[in-house]
Design goal:
About 40% of the residues lie in helices and about 5% in strands. The protein contains two helices and two strands. About 0% of the residues are buried. The protein is elongated. By secondary structure, the protein is mostly helical.
Length: about 70
């Protein structure tokens, strides 16, 4: 019961409006692991790859660059 209470409290903190948070913060991928089982269906593996690519694309930061001509 304690695990369900903790999980419920954590789940209430985030929703899809916050995505890609909490996985990406300040342009950095934040200690995230995607797990796919050994017997996973092909669609599940492709889904995990798609999520990984989207998180990588969201993990960007801006850097000022000085250009001279």
């Amino acid at each position: 019961m304690l695990g369900a209470t903790i999980l419920g409290a954590t789940a209430a903190t985030w929703d899809l409006m916050d995505y890609p948070a909490p996985f990406v913060a300040d342009g950095q991928l934040d200690d995230t692991v995607l797990v796919v089982g050994a017997a996973a269906q092909t669609a599940d593996v492709l889904g995990a790859i798609d999520i990984a690519a989207a998180l990588q694309a969201a993990a960007v930061s801006q850097t000022a660059v000085e250009v001279s001509t």
